[in-house]
Amino acid sequence: MPCTKSTSKPHPLDSLSTDEVIQTAKLIRESKEDSKFVFNTITLREPPKDIMMAYLGWDKETPKPETVERESFVIIIERPSGKVYEAIVSLTDNKVKSWMHMEGVQPIITFDEMAEVEELINKDPKVAAECAELGITDMSKVYSDPWAIGRHVDGAEKRVMQGLMYYRLSEDDNQYAHPLDFVPIIDLNQMKVIDIERIAPRDSKFKRPTIPMEPHNFYPEFLGEENLRKDIKPLIVQQPEGVSFKVDGNEIDWQKWNLRISFNYREGLVLHNLNYQDGDEKRPLFYRMSLSEMVVPYAEPGAPHYRKHAFDVGEYGLGLSTNSLALGCDCLGTIHYFDAVFNDASGRPFVVPNAVCLHEEDHGILFKHTEYRNGRAHTVRGRRLVISHIVTVANYDYACYWHLYQDGTINYEIKATGEVNTHVLAEDETPGPYGTMVAPQINAQHHQHFFTMRIDPMVDGLKNSIAQVDVQAVEEPVGHPNNMYGNGFYPKTTVYKDTLEAQASSNFDTARFWKIINPNKLNPRSKDPVGFKVVTHSNSPLFAKPGSIVHDRAGFASKTVWATPYEEDKLFAGGFYCNQANGEDSLPQWTKESKSVENTDIVMWYTFGVTHLVRVEDFPIMPVESCGFSMKPSNFFTCNPALDVPPTTKSINKSVHAFKSDDDDSCCNKSAPIAA
């Protein structure tokens, strides 16, 4: 992820530089001189995995290649026909290698298009007439959130969007306090409004609602400086001797961890080649991990709300939606940033500075024991490495965090915040069971957030399996010789053999979790296959029924775990061309036939999420709602791998008493008086 220009030879997994974006666009233009088109996507085409396994040194039988061809992948939309083309460009050989017309598909919606759509809507006379009927004549105060349309009746032949409409009292006013009651439908290739749908009030005497004009704002200038809390003292995080991590380009070393990161238009942050130094052995763990897809289905079944199920990865590009992070605001402490490079519709590169934040955090007690006989307390505080980015997709903001821990644990967390999507109600209308009235006439609809991770493991090698672990009570009744006192329970482990078995949901009754294991390598202590335990406390079923548009398109969210054999082009659970798709190219379709996933090169697809029943406290801006999952070493090491983390002391961490002089000479590893 170079800042601007290439200054040295890039690593094969490095994102494209600005120079490489320019080179790609130039080669495309030269090869298609007479065509009129816009650049939808210019991104790195990652090298094949088998080549990279040799390049990274994990494949000991294949010599490391001296060079790896550098390629870019391009998606182009012809105007005004709307034809979609894919191209592969060899940056190494400076030529276009392939050019292919893709029928019946629509790529992601770009910010260039969203800006065009909003401008088009505000100039359209039919939209102005709708606003005038609501008493709105100043179109400069009318705003629209351009949304993907889901699966429109016309399929994917036309490139179509819908606009969710709002009003603002001023430029920085909260538009979600003033929702309008109609939705324009836009043909992006023709760039015209082709339809306007009114949202009729339900069980109301009014034909149309009045638009609520009471402001509900959260910026300090609206709240007033005098109304902000005055009792918050500064909290400062300092590392006077510097950080404990090392960065070389996009490679990161920290506390026995080693990995690379990249950043692309779609997934955003991607982790590559995670490995861990275990004594004298560097052990491979994960080849590639990313957020593959997410979906936010809404609960309101009426038109046009049933179309509101946003795929923020596949429809908008999570990477394209990323924020430029601010020092001391989004990350706290001693920070290292990585920039991100994208392209605009003309093929010109642009840089999002500070797209990824890297820093360390104290994470409380790593382990502790107090010997009650003599009062000796041994406390070791842990820390974690945080690699994060924050995205904004219309009203919602998602802060995405990868955490690495000193005990070998990996955690992924998403904090959802921003503004809840709102819908106007008539004066006598209620939200019904599908939402919450967060202010007079303002309905915030219930919805869900599902996040599907693509986990490409190489736990001590490429041949891995996935095991489902269910905890079961001993079947024999109380009093039986095998369960005399009725307290017996044990784990039952099922290793998935094929893609049909490897489709499972969380089960609270059995405390179910999963393990990624290497059946070819046994732990010398437990005699079990080495592995990593995968678990989440963020479980929720997909409430949309089978046969619904949402379920057809987002069937990947109907299960917690799927497993597939590794395939180079299967990166996105909702399909590569997710926008306006019907779900025929998606994870549930890939797993209809039995394919082996035992002791082979596999991919685990893991879904977590939350059901958001909106509260009044979520308005006008929503406090964070956290969810995520963890992967912990399970019989991977021969003991606690963090034993060598030294205990901290107050002389190091500068802890002091809040309300008395600092004359306490205690530390985190000495005997203390025993309480009487």
TrEMBL record:
Domain Copper amine oxidase catalytic: 237-643
Reaction(s) the record says it catalyses: a primary methyl amine + O2 + H2O = an aldehyde + H2O2 + NH4(+)
EC number(s) stated in the UniProt entry for this protein: 1.4.3.-
Residues carrying 2',4',5'-topaquinone: 396
Cofactor note as given: Contains 1 topaquinone per subunit.
Family label: Belongs to the copper/topaquinone oxidase family.
Protein's name according to its UniProt entry: Amine oxidase
Classification lineage: Eukaryota, Fungi, Fungi incertae sedis, Mucoromycota, Mucoromycotina
